[in-house]
Each structure stands twice: as structure tokens, then as C-alpha cells.
Amino acid sequence: MGGFARLAAAAAAVGFSACAADVPLVDLAIENVTVIDAENGARTARTVLVRGDTIIDVVAAGDAPNAEQVVDGTGRYLIPGLWDMHVHTTYDPALTPAMPGLFLRWGITSVRDTGGLLDRVLPVVEAWRAEGATAPRIFFAGPLLDGAKVVYDGNGRPEICTGNATVEDARAQVAELDAAGVDFIKIYEMVSPEVFDALVLAGEERGLPIDAHVPLSMRARDVAPRVNSMEHLRNVELDCSANPAALLAAREREFVRDPGEAGGDLRTRLQGLQRVPAVLAYDARECEQVFATMASTIQVPTLRLNSFALHPAFVDDGWFDAVAGAPAPIAESWDAAGRAWRADPQQQDTIFAGWSLRMVGEMHARGIPIGAGTDTPINYSLPGYALHTELEMLVRAGLAPLDAIRAATIRPAEFFGVQEMGRIEPGMRADLVLLDADPLADIRNTRRIAGVVTKGRMLAPEALEQLGR
Ligand SMILES: [Zn+2]
Predict the structure, then answer these.
(1) Distance from the alpha carbon of residue 4 to the mean position of ligand 1, in angstroms
(2) If you placed Cys at 68, which of 3, 24, 41, 426 could pair as Cys (CB 3.0 to 4.6 Å)?
(3) What single DSSP character describes residue 425?
(4) What's the CA gap between 84 and 384, in Å, rounded?
């Protein structure tokens, strides 16, 4: 039975008039709303028609739409469902069960899980993808693919990496992940150039998009053209300084010398030796060469995290309100941490925070694609709410509000080669966020949520309020 026939039959079954004009043609209509997406800009006085999980039309507002459910969009704004491009659903098991609700509550209808062991991530993926689940769409990488040493080894840090000492390990690892159904792979910081190469080739052979941190054994300009996205601007500062070859040689000496320290300790030590000196030795001519290699690589700068020293979560009253809606143990401990900080704000070094903001402005000015991701739940990053802070930080860095929206809608769809997400047009998936105020006037208005449509289902404010607790 086709969609129309099914609806007609359903209407007849509940005793509606058999008159064809009374049969709802669509499931949901959001009427007389200003529609905004990053490709089409703002279009006023539109009615958006949804059937199942598909936007079937965007028409001029006029006659009452023939729909099962009609939502008044007068004076409101409709944007595509938002993505968080950098989350770890299994990083803090206390938060994992609340995450789908928290994301949806804040209008995040899709996430990219950028690292977790398969035996923990797969059950999450299965639960979120179950028929009728109230959960965002989830795209996942499985574990961080690290080198002979691994950073997140489970000793004092969560276990979210797997080691790849050899090229053979790398090939076997990607084959295993592909068989497990991952949507992309994520290459981490301790891999050798040979293992990096093998991972990239294996990902390409299998049609898996590739995400990476710049490995400490390599330079950003050699990594960027070979991957689809890069995270945190990590180690880019090393290649944007006055003498990147000397910095690389110094790191190589440390790898060879190997005093037997754990991967995480080695990384921390190398960052301590090189990061701030590299930022202070920023060289515009060198960096221009790095930028030139990034034209088609999405940069996910996680500015909320990188620039935390300049804009701590705790300065924001909205963060406290949002945290209050999290599960009680998280709400209590995070609230206490926020209050302690407010009572005695710690002065932090802001050199790297300021550099990160400036870099994103420079990249955006050169047309380098920027993606919005938060590293939730790391560093008091509340699932869902944090993405709105990231949008705010992207605008501070120099993106127009519409470009910030692009970073959280069209860019992630591009990363996965998904054609039917990111815009509000016929044929697109029905993920939408209804706002009470104009996000183009002030990007912080993306927090003023009057409803969320996820996979075609409208969640009204009363329903959203109950999610994620
Ligand atoms: Zn991460």
C-alpha cells in the first residue's frame, strides 16, 4: 500500500469522512515559518511538509495544510537538525544512557562518534538505531587507531585506542572495523608515517571516510590532503611555526630514544616541549603552505575545548541551567565544579586558546571547510548544549552565523557523502529544529528551541524537557 492509500485507510478506520479532501496528505506541516539553511539562506512565510522521515515539500504559506499534525511557525525559524561532529558516547559510562535524550533536547539530531572500543560502541549504535528509538542518528568510527604506543590505553585514561605497530596490523584492523560496520576510521597521534599510509590506503579501498589527528611523526601539510577531516587543529601549530622541520626532527629523536614511557606520557611530554613554543614562533609564510593543503579537508577545531581558557563553560549561566537537566549525579558534580570555579576563577594560560580562535578565522577566510564538534563529554562538555557553545565560538572566530550553521549541517553530511541531509528541501531527511528567535541575528538563538523533528517525529517542548534526565 502506498503512503496516500495507507493514510486514507487509516483515516477511514478511525471514522473520518471518506471525502478525499479530509484525508491528511502529510504527517506533519510546520506552517508559516522562516526557513533557514546554509545553501538557500532565509526564506520567509514557508510551510514545510513532512511525510514519514522525508521532507516532501516546502511551499508558500497560505491555505491550511492538509496534515495529520500542524505546528504554527508564525514568528519562528526552522533550521536543519544539527550535528555534533565530535562526540564520545562511551567515554563516561555514567552519561551514556542519557546522551540520546540530551542531544535531541538541544536539537542535535545526528552525531559522529569519533572513538570508542567496538564492544562498547556497538551496543550504543544498536540501541540508537533501533526502530522507534528516541535517539539521534549515529555514525561511528570504533577505536582510535594508534601506533606502536597508544595514548588512551586504559591506564589513568579511558581505553579507547587500539595499537597498530606494523603495516600488517593496520590492514587487519581496518578490515575488522569495516566488517563491524563502521562509518569512518579515525587515525590517532602515535602512528608512524608507514602505518598512517597503510591506514589511509585501507580506508580508501573500502570507501571509508578518514578522520585524523596529525600524527606526531608527521607534518600537517603532509596529512591534510590525504584525509577527509582533522580534529582539534591538533599539532597544526607545529607545522605553522618558523622551523617545522627542526621540530619534527626533535620529535623523531624522542621516538627513537624511547625511555619506555607510556604513549599518553610521551604525547604529553612532546606537547609540553613543543606546543607553546611553536605557537609563539608562528610563521605566516609557513602556515600559508599548510593552509594550501587543506582546501578540501574539513577542520573540526573543537573551539569550545581548544579555547576553554578564554571562554570557560562556567562563565555561562546557560551552562548551569542546562547541566541542571542532566542525570542527578552528573548535574550535582558538574554544578559543584562550576560553582567552585566561580568562587575562585583560575587564571589559565590563553596562548593556545587565542591561537586556536585566530587559526579558525584565517582558515575560514581562505575557504577551508570548518565542521562543528565538541569532544563531548570531555571537559564539562554537556551533550547537546555544548554544540551551541561551539557555534558561538565559531562566530567569535569570524564565521557568519549562516556559516556556523553550515558547519553543523552541510559539512558533516559532506564528510559522509550523504546527499539527503543538511538542507530544508524536498527529498531531504526530516530532521529539523524550530526556534523562537532568529539565529542569523544572534547565533545564540539556536538555543531557543520550540520543537525538534527527529526522523519525522515532532518533539514538542514538554516532551523535550523530559529527555536526558
Ligand atoms: Zn575526541
Answers:
(1) 44
(2) 24
(3) S
(4) 8
Expressed in angstroms and rounded, the spacing between residue 232 Cα and the centre of ligand 1 is 8
Task: Output the nine-digit C-alpha cell for 323.
Answer: 547541566
CA separation for the pair 227, 320 (Å, rounded): 37
Nearest to 422 by CA among 291, 298, 295: 298
CA of residue 464 to ligand 1 center, whole Å: 27
Digit-coded pLDDT (tens) for 308-341: 999 999 999 999 999 999 999 999 999 999 999 9
Distance 142 CA to ligand 1 centre (A): 12
Question: In angstroms, what is the span from residue 88 Cα to ligand 1's centroid?
Answer: 6
Q: Which residues, 6 or more positions from 265, have their beta carbon under 8 angstroms from its beta carbon?
A: none
Distance, CA 256 to ligand 1 centroid (Å)? Answer: 27
What torsion, rounded to 10 degrees, do the Cα atoms 415, 421, 422, 423 define? 140
User: Would you list the DSSP string of 261-330?
Assistant: --HHHHHHHHHHHHHHHHHHTB-HHHHHHHHTT-TTSEEE--HHHHTTTTS-GGG-HHHHHHHHTS-HHH
Residue type, 116: G
81 close to 454: Cβ distance less than 8 angstroms: yes
At residue 167, the 3 state secondary structure works out as helix
Q: Which residue has the cell 478525499?
A: 20
Does residue 4 register a pLDDT over 50?
A: no
CA-closest candidate to residue 182, choices 228, 141, 212? 141
Average pLDDT for 436-446? 98
Please give the distance, rounded to the nearest whole angstrom, from the Cα atom of residue 207 to the centre of ligand 1. Answer: 22
Instruction: At 287, give phi and psi (nearest 5°).
Output: -70, -30
Using alpha carbons only, give the angle 315, 380, 434 rounded to the nearest 5 degrees: 80
In Å, how far from its chain's centre is CA 438?
22
Residue in this structure with the C-alpha cell 528551541, named with its chain if needed: 449
Query: What CATH topology corresponds to 141-218?
Result: Rossmann fold (3.40.50)
For residue range 243-288, list pLDDT tens digits in order.
999 999 999 999 888 888 999 999 999 999 999 999 999 999 999 9
Pairing of strands 77-80, 26-37: parallel
How far does the centroid of ligand 1 lie from the alpha carbon of residue 377, in Å? Answer: 9
Conformational region of residue 32, where left means phi above 0, alpha means psi within -120 to 50, and beta covers everything else? left
Q: Which three cell numbers stand for residue 290?
A: 599548510
Residue type, 41: G
DSSP one-letter code for 63: S
CA of 196 to the centre of ligand 1 (A): 18
